[in-house]
Amino acid sequence: MSKERIKDFIDKQLENLEDSFYEIESDENHIYAIFTEVLSEKVNLELTFKLLDDVLYLHSITYGWKPVEKGVANKYFWIELLKTVA
Q: How many Å separate Cα 61 from the centre of its chain?
């Protein structure tokens, strides 16, 4: 799996936000983005990604596995990110 692809996706989403800190980790099946700060708020948030047939998916407890790169599908990323801050 491509850590770089997930990093590119997250960096694109956060390009105008300076106060977000995360690191990328992986295992055999998934890649995890672990956030420690979002919008100047300290958080402990882990987002799980996977690549399947060259499509990037994000796992949400509420919505399950959702593709996040096409159209407005990035809303699932933002829902997961912001529900922790709110």
A: 13
pLDDT(75) > 70: yes
Residue listed under structure tokens 């949400």: 60
Element (H, E) at 4: helix 3-13
β partners of residue 41: 38
Place of tokens 């890649």: 31
Contact 75, 66 (CB under 8 A): no
Amino acid at 13: Q
pTM of the model: 0.86
Provide the terminal-to-terminal Cα distance of the chain, rounded to the nearest Å: 31
Measured CA distances, 13 to 27, 28, 31, 34, 53 (Å): 23, 25, 17, 15, 22
pLDDT at 9 over 90: yes
